[in-house]
Amino acid sequence: MSTQSASSILFTHSSRQQGFKLLELPAELADLLTSKEAPTLELKSSLPQQPTTITTDPENREYVNLCTPTKTYLVRQVQSSNSIHIIRPSDSGVQRGDINIVGGDEDDGLNLVETMTAIAKCGSTLELHTPPEGFSAVPVLERILPVYDEVEGAEQQVEVEERGDLIRRVFADVPVSRAQCEAGWIELCAFVLGCGGSGEDVAGWCRRPSAKVKLDVWRRVVEGAVLQGIDLGKQFLVQDLWRSVLDEGEEPFPRALFEGVVRRVCEVGDGRIDRACCTQWVGETYLEAMAPTTASSIGRSEFLNAWKDLLPESWRDDVAFSKLTVSRTPASLDYSLHWSSIIPRCYGI
C-alpha cells in the first residue's frame, strides 16, 4: 500500500502560559463593532448594598453587564468540555534544542518558521446573554434615588450642563445601557433637585417623586391648562404650561419636578402629550398613591370617577379598566382595587 508524505507544522507549548478570556459575541454585536461607527462599550456592575453580608439570593449576587449605548448583555461564564488552546506562529527565538519532537524524527528537517506555539489554555468561555424579560434601570434607580414626598424648600439653581453631568454620574452606577437608564429616569419622573447632596454621593442631589407628589403635580397641570386655555391634546410650549401652574408668580414645586412629570407623559420629540399613555399613567399613579395595598383598597366606582376627574374634559370617556396593566382580567377583579393588583409597565423613549 502506497503512502503519501505531507508537510507538517510543528506544535509547541509555551512553558509560561498567558491569561486569556474568550468572549463569544452575538452576531448583531459583532456587526456593530466592525462597523465604521463602532460605539464604546462599557462593563458595568451594580454597587454592593451590604459588602459584609454573604447572600445566596440570585438577585443580589455579583455580576457584570456589557453595555452598548442602547443594549445590555449579561456576561456569564460557560465551562467547556473541550480545552481551547490559543496559538500563534512561533518567532525566531524558538530553538530546535528547546523542543521535544513527539512521534517524529528529529532529522526530518522541520522548518521552525512553520512552528505554532500554544500560549494559553482556556477551560471556559464568556458569553453574552439577554434574559427574556430584558433589562430595566427602574429597580436600581428606585433603590439609589431618595424619594421626594413633600416640598423640601427652595430649589437650588443648577445649570443645564451641570445637571446633565450629575445625571451621567448617577447612570454610571446603574448596570444597564445609557438608553435604558434614560428610559428608567423618565419612567420614575426623576429630577435633579440641586440640594441635599454632598461629597461624592451624586444620587443625593437627585430625587424620584412619590406617587402622591406626581399626582399633585399632574392635577395642577390640568387645572392650569384649563384656566389658561391650553389644549393638552395639541402641541404646546412647556414654558406656557409652567406659567399656568404658578401661584401668583410663586413656584408650587420645583420646575425640574414639573418637567419630569410632563416628560413622562409626552410623546418622544414632540411638544404634545401622549393621550393613551397619559390616561393609563394617571390611573395607575392614582392607585399607587391612594390604594398601595389591599388594606387601603378603594371601590371601583370611586376609582373610575376620581380617575376621570384627573383628566381633561375631552378625555374622560377614555377611562376604562382595559387601560390598566392588570394582573387579572378586568371581569375577574373584585369590587375594590389596589396598587398591587396592577403591574407597572416601563415605557420606552
Automatic annotation (TrEMBL):
It comes from the Eukaryota. GO terms for cellular component: chromatin; chromosome, centromeric region; Ctf18 RFC-like complex. Keywords: DNA replication. InterPro entries: Dcc1 (IPR019128). GO terms for biological process: DNA replication; maintenance of mitotic sister chromatid cohesion. Belongs to the DCC1 family. This is Unnamed protein product. It comes from Aspergillus oryzae. The lineage of its organism: Eukaryota, Fungi, Dikarya, Ascomycota, Pezizomycotina.
